[in-house]
């Protein structure tokens, strides 16, 4: 695994200014934070640094202001919710007079800096903007894996200007991902679901060479079934990608990866909760006016048997249209099996992506997986095998400093 420094390597930070890149891009409703998950994820790093008498400066973006200050995208509105989660006072620092405001902070104090995207150069990875940020701190800590796939001034360029470290959330994420695909215990299974193959082509191509079992679900499975000559009726499918699907299946066969597609499915004539036309059938028995909406129970049982032979699981995407009952049944059932195996120390399970997190929460097993990543785009790009600029900056800079 590529090395990166953590808070354990930071040393004495009493009275030092530590710039911590966090993800405060939380959903809002009626002017209040409606989900504080991302706020809570910052607590281990922020409290550890504040307890060590560091001056903690939180650097984050909010929305897409496109380089223009906007009151409705000010991080000022996050302060009350963050104080409630943290249980401590939190100051707010505008970009006007920011240096003086930072200089006035006492050791142990915590402040949220204004939206980093109020600078047009933030998203362009502008060295001048990174220099503006870096001038406020003595050390840089990146604790926002969810923004690590972006080469921005606050995630990439700044790591080249200050001693750079991974925060506790970033450290946990990178450690979990290394266990999942970097140096996993085999056999490895991957569950990849979702509506469209087109959005996950790179993921599938990357995984077939790295996992032993690839379980394909959701609308994606329909495209693969259709490519194999199965009549999928009115099911969501990207028929134009049939040749691509067959190429992926051929690549899997060459790599010794077993691809699992459903052989029994839950179908209906309309997509609605508990429709009267609901039935379970073999994939070769789908009527022309029916659509596949979930994986069937026999296939789930077979997939459970596959997971019982594996030591590592990576999961991204639901097996069916899980938002609408009863088409969440397969996802919930397999997630419960994976959670039980994890709790029995038989499986390392790592899941990520917005729909996946929602599905695991719906199944009530998110806390029973080894690690659940709330990062959407960054998790997907990691599954594609891409280098994440925010992570690469930490590892490259730290490696360079160790070699000198």
Structure, described:
The protein has 404 residues and is an alpha/beta fold. The chain has 2 domains: 7-167 and 387-403, Rossmann fold; 184-373, Phosphoglycerate kinase, N-terminal domain (Rossmann fold, 3-Layer(aba) Sandwich). It is 35% helix and 17% strand. The protein has a 6-stranded parallel β-sheet, with helices on both faces. A 6-stranded parallel β-sheet has the order 11-10-9-15-16-17, with helices on both faces.
Q: At CATH's second level, what is the architecture of the largest domain?
A: 3-Layer(aba) Sandwich
Strand order of the largest sheet: 5-6-4-1-7-8
CATH superfamily of the largest domain: Phosphoglycerate kinase, N-terminal domain
CATH fold-level name of the largest domain: Rossmann fold
Kindly name the structural category: alpha/beta
List the uncertain runs: 399-404
Structurally, the number of domains stands at 2
What is the tally of beta strands? 17
Features of this protein?
single chain, 404 residues, alpha/beta, Rossmann fold, six-stranded parallel β-sheet, 14 helices, 17 strands, disordered C terminus
Topology:
Elements: E1 17-21, E2 28-29, E3 32-33, H1 37-41, H2 43-51, E4 55-59, H3 79-86, E5 91-93, H4 98-103, E6 110-113, H5 127-134, E7 139-142, E8 164-166, H6 168-182, E9 188-192, H7 201-208, E10 213-216, H8 218-227, H9 242-255, E11 258-260, E12 264-268, E13 279-282, E14 291-295, H10 297-308, E15 312-316, H11 329-343, E16 348-352, H12 354-363, E17 371-373, H13 377-383, H14 389-403
Parallel strand pairs: 1-4, 1-7, 4-6, 5-6, 7-8, 9-10, 9-15, 10-11, 15-16, 16-17
Antiparallel strand pairs: 2-3, 12-13, 12-14
Helix pairs in contact: 8-9, 10-11, 11-12
